[in-house]
Amino acid sequence: MSLDRTTAPPFIIPEEISFIKPTKRTLPNGVHLYFNSTPNLGAVRIEVNGESLRGELGVTKKMVSFFTLHMLLEGTVTKSGAELDDFFDYYASEVEIISSFEHQGIALLTTKKHFSSVLPVFRELMTEAVFPEKELQKLKSQKALNISIQFEKNAVRASHLFRQQLFGESHPYGMISEERDVALINREDLVDYYQNYLWVNPEIFIAGDLTENELELIENVLGDLPVHSYQSTPPQFANIGKELLIENREKSVQSSVRLGCHLIPKTHPDYHALSVFNTFLGGYFGSRLIKNIREDKGHTYGIYSSIGGLKSSDYWVIAADVKKEYTSEVLDEIYKELEILQYQEIPIEELETVRNYLIGNLLSTFSSSFELINRFKGIHQAGLDLSFYENRLSFLKNFQAADIQRTGQQLISQDYFVGSIVG
Predict the structure, then answer these.
(1) How many domains does the chain have?
(2) Is the pTM higher than 0.85?
(3) Which of 188, 222, 256 is the last residue of a domain?
(4) What is the rounded distance in angstroms from the CA atom of residue 218 to the CA atom of residue 24?
(5) Is 355 inside any structural domain?
(6) Cα–Cα distances in Å, from 406 out to 26, 271, 346?
């Protein structure tokens, strides 16, 4: 029987989704390990992910964590940086640096075939790094040049200033790294951070076709990893609203715009409704901001809104690069679309389009065990479990326009906004 390729297959929404929870083990050093099995898949990914204590370093050493992490591959007690590169290349393996506002660490992507050979060297990066002075100076020079170049880009500068407005310029999340900060870094700073601040409250996340013997190998290799326990309290942020920070650049033909505010955490009962509200406004390519400012008016190539995640609360940002002469008009249109979405009836066709888009997007993010362990990590670090996604599917299948608009009215206000314009 031949297939009829002129008709798309029907879109079927599953009644429910269920996930195989990662297996949890506790290593001898107290570190929790979460493992998802991937039968018949020859790749293995292991991530050691700890809490970031950048706030403990003070303003003058705000770049220490960056240099410490990026120097791990520049040499260990037994191997030079070049030898490490050759080793991981030979075994078709990659080491990835993990760095965010609240977390830091490293990850290894390798093959099941070579896993036992590569794991001990991966461990060396966590305990035997030597931070050679010559390579540090080279990296400092590269970073200083990169900062100089990035500062010239309107979009980068606008994002920096937005963070400063949102979190405060004295808070670690709002601090902007400058060339002079690079000069303050020395090797002793890196060694101290490596020994005392790097592996704080770490957890291990693994996906791969690993046997019990291979999991025991991980326990043996990482079970005595020196770790640090630290009882931290997530920072609390409040929306206070500020005038937009404007940095004029006369030669620019475009302005980079960033607007946003603090939101509720993922544990809040209205979180799913708020995330759907974001999708309607600017969270996908058919959003209202895209249709108005890109398609109808042609003032920008792209405009979007997105939600960033933190432990205590998420945050919201609307971002666009627009023709400079239309900057004020674009701001007015953003506020107008926000108010329309909050108070004017959402058409049924648009409602169902967004519903189907979000359900399809949700299901597509679990197409592999590698993605599942990443999704688990994200909500686990927010204090949730995989039922978060089961509840999300249930909400997406049943939400009504009134649910979305009520949440938008209650939790989003122009009075909360901070932002920046560079151009």
Answers:
(1) 2
(2) yes
(3) 222
(4) 13
(5) yes
(6) 44, 12, 12
